[in-house]
UniProtKB/TrEMBL annotation:
Gene3D superfamilies in alphabetical order: P-loop containing nucleotide triphosphate hydrolases
Single GO molecular function: transferase activity
Source organism, top-level taxon: Bacteria
Active site (record annotation): 42
Keyword Lipid metabolism tagged: no
Pfam families reported in the protein's UniProt record: CPT (PF07931)
List of residues binding ATP: 15-22
Native source organism of the sequence: Nostoc flagelliforme CCNUN1
InterPro entries from the UniProt entry: CPT (IPR012853), P-loop_NTPase (IPR027417)
Keyword terms: Transferase
Protein name listed in UniProt: Cpt, chloramphenicol 3-O phosphotransferase
Amino acid sequence: MGQTQELGQIIILNGAPRSGKSSIVAVIQETFDGLWMNLGVDRFMQMTPPRYLPGIGLRPGGERQDIEPLVPILYSAMYESIAAHSRLGLNVVVDVGHHDAYAIPRDILSDSARRLNGLPVLFVGVRCPIEIIMERRQKTRGKVGSAAYSLMPHPVELWQREVHIPGIYDLEVDTSLLSPGACAEIIRQHLADIPAPSAFQRLAAHHT
């Protein structure tokens, strides 16, 4: 009665598709102390009606201008939900691929950072060389037709270029060099050693 609710820790993993974010999320949920909710982009896409997909997962290139105006609203809803969970004392891990390569700039990342103002956020860049991403794409699609992916698809190149702009992170990991477990352990140690990450504060200052 009357005691202040402790805020839940937020970890945001930002990177291109197949960079290994989901595997790190799984380790965090399984091994970190306490309850960790996954409120990432895949979860929100599952809630999105098919006619509005890919919704929040819209890739770089400005190719779906019919649904593009909805994307900032969907991101706002996701980040407001993340904030609500943290304020209730629930830890949250988020896997996402932020970019601003829409038909017009949307400034979604800095707006998202502003919505988590005052909450404990660790912003992690999940990097992976494009060659490894292509190998993972081929494996998930199976052997049949894999030759069609021997050339680098333009959307993959766009993701690789756009997802880490402006590159302001508290921590970065490379999943071509480290296992999901090793990446999660680096994140755990960083949280223990650096109690007040500041990347999202800096990004929020860019919001116009």
